[in-house]
Amino acid sequence: SNARNYWLMGQNVAAGQAVRGVLAVDPGNVAATEMYQLLISPALTAARAAQQENNVTALLQHAEELLSIAPDHIEGLGIMAGALARARRWQEAAGVWERLAVRIPASVEAHLQMARCHERVQALDLALMKYNDVIALDPNHAEAVTAAARLSAVMLGQARQKSQVGELEEAQRLLLLASRGRFENATAMAVSHHIAHQWLRKAREQFKA
Q1: CA–CA separation, 179 vs 153, rounded Å?
Q2: Model confidence over 24-67: pLDDT tens digits?
Q3: Which of 50, 123, 177, 184 is 20 to 30 Å from the Cα of 56, by its Cα?
Q4: Cα dihedral: 97, 99, 102, 105 (round 10)
Q5: What is the mean pLDDT of the chain?
Q6: Cα–Cα distance between 127 and 130 in angstroms, integer?
Q7: Surface-to-core class of residue 69, CB atoms within 10 Å of its CB (0-12 exposed, 13-18 middle, 19+ buried)
Q8: End-to-end distance of the chain based on CA atoms, in angstroms?
């Protein structure tokens, strides 16, 4: 087959593409499945060894090799995401965790790790959304519940500050984001009323002008 010929020539990525093409048409093809495992095995074994040795450079190399052959390999995606996080490449790690979540939508771990990565780069709106995804899957998840409450409080504080200096559109945006999390209704109402009051005052001033 084409896949075997590519493999014999050392072109593992091309061999992987050929095998995936066969399996897409015939998922039960035994020969193609065996070839796929043969292609994946060396990179996966090397990635696991690098993981045990905590060798981030080698881990990234072998995980990239594995995913170039098998882009949707579940363990490979987890290894790559973890390696990117160890390298403090948070946004890239979040992107790989998202690929894993697409494959396994009910994965609490994938959504949780995405939330952590987004929070690391101060993308608080995305982090809050992902913490809420975790809560939807596991309502009693202590870290996600605590983080959602914390981020909501931060956004409410930012909304209050923005409203006080007249940046009302940004204040409303932050209030809307905060409403996706868990926070005390009294605090949210106070901020909302303050923003509304500021809008009314601004409208009156424009009318007088």
Answers
A1: 10
A2: 778 888 887 888 888 888 889 999 999 889 899 999 999 988 89
A3: 123
A4: -10
A5: 80
A6: 5
A7: buried
A8: 79
